[in-house]
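haha ok so turns out i had the wrong file open the whole time. this is the CORRECT one, sorry everyone. sequence first:
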Amino acid sequence: MKKLNIFLDSSALIAGVISESGAAHALLQLGETEDILLTISELVFNETTRSVARKSPDNLEDVQKEIKKAKIKIVKDPTHAEIQANLYLIEDPDDVPILLAAVKAKVDYLATHDKKHFLNDPKVEERAGIKIGTPRDVLNWIRENLNPE
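then structure:
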């Protein structure tokens, strides 16, 4: 059976690194045990390190460790031309490269805490053709797919 591949945006990755009790951290643990595949883009990596350095510098080293421990694959960002051609996917143009990287990586699910741009607009999921939800949504979906009744 093909392993489920989950794309983490920076909000999900940061939550997983900083909190040891949340759903995002559980996703990192599943990546560590190789029960699932985890993917981020170069932009997500850069956003995450920049944000953690600014807001929680004590956790900056943990970002690198968690990425390595959870065996997170880092994919290339989409090109400028690809981004421009796909601006229709999501309202905020700054989120297009993240959504497009997830689509191009052919992931099963994109995990995010971004309600405003990703979670509160069901059309984004429809247009992108991938599932989008919170890390908790992703965990529930993984349970359903790993243990079909």
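DSSP finds nine helices and five strands in the chain.
again sry for the mixup
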